[in-house]
Amino acid sequence: MVKVEFLGPIGKKPVEVEAGSLKELKEILNKDDSLKPWLENSAVAVNDKIVQDLDVELKNGDRVVILPPVCGG
Asked: Dihedral of the CA atoms 37, 53, 56, 67 (nearest 10)?
């Protein structure tokens, strides 16, 4: 299982899912219509490292964090 955390205004509680890659995880998370807009614009970290490639393999116990864009002043 992979633990997925959603930061900031996404407002979702962490979930655990079976996924072998970020690409597979994105397909699973896209089934939730409220997440689709966030997934298009958010950064992703796997085990505290920002990644940009959806081909990243995931292992049991990995932690994926969805980091939405923020603005401040």
From this structure: -40
Domains of the chain and CATH, by start: 2-67 (3.10.20.30)
pLDDT for 73 beyond 60 = no
Question: Residue 24, exposed/middle/buried by CB under 10 A (0-12, 13-18, 19+)?
Answer: middle
Model confidence pLDDT, tens digit, residues 37-47: 999 999 999 99
Q: Where are any strands of DSSP class E within the chain?
A: 2-6, 15-17, 43-46, 49-51, 63-67
Q: Which residue has the tokens 């939405």?
A: 68
Contact (Cβ atoms closer than 8 angstroms) between residue 3 and residue 64 = yes
Rounded distance between C-alpha atoms, residue 37 and residue 40, angstroms: 5
| 3-state secondary structure (DSSP) of residue 37 | helix
